[in-house]
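Feature request, filed as a ticket because there's no other form

It would be nice if the structure record came with a short human-readable summary line next to the tokens. Right now we just get the raw output. Example of a typical job, pasted below so the devs can see what we mean:
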Amino acid sequence: RHLGTERAEECHWYMKADPDTYLNLRAISDRLACFNSMEQHFFGVVHAALPASSLRLDWPALYFAHGGSGIVVSSGLVRLVGDVSEPCLSYSMTTTGGDGMEDVVFAACLKNAGVQVMSYGYHPRQIEDSDERSSEFVVNFHQARNALLNSSDGSPLRRSLYWDAQPPPLHGCLLMAHPIEDPADMWWVHAAITRGPRSRTRRRCLPTPVALARQFAVRIQGPGSDPKDFWAKD
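Raw output as currently delivered:
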């Protein structure tokens, strides 16, 4: 509420992330420059919260921005966030007793106000060995830590079928990595992204027109719910 009512004019974009999240601020800044901050934008790494199977007919999946991976709000939206935060918090405390997940509650409040979460990063249907750097999120660093750090010298990423997600190697256009549980790993991740063999030199972190067209076909779908586009068509 404070940001929306007292500090709405200070920034073009507002972002919240957990302390164990690495944020590539240069790449994030470049990406957000593609959007009009005066418009209402709610960005993040999109997840789906599912009710019990017996309730899904009446309560479909709720799509939200995973809080640990970072929630981004434009200046054009932050005032609305300030307006809805107090009644939303009150409703959440009444219905959940304070046990509701922060990121899910936040998304529910904005959805009720007519604002849906969208992804701001590129995430292909599958990571192809020919262009592993096309994916821009690492959401399971804790699982893939050893493989990611070992491949930071430019060698191939040795993948496991048992990981919850298949991350890209650490590269210069990566937007974020989460969760990094050992503080010392933050330095190694930063070094790989900014100075490693896959770091960005003159390469711009913008998907090609063909990649953009493919991204428009990528959707997330919770059981019993309508599919959701990762990116808005406009």
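Something like this underneath would help us a lot:
The chain is about 30% helix and 10% strand.
The radius of gyration is 18 Å.
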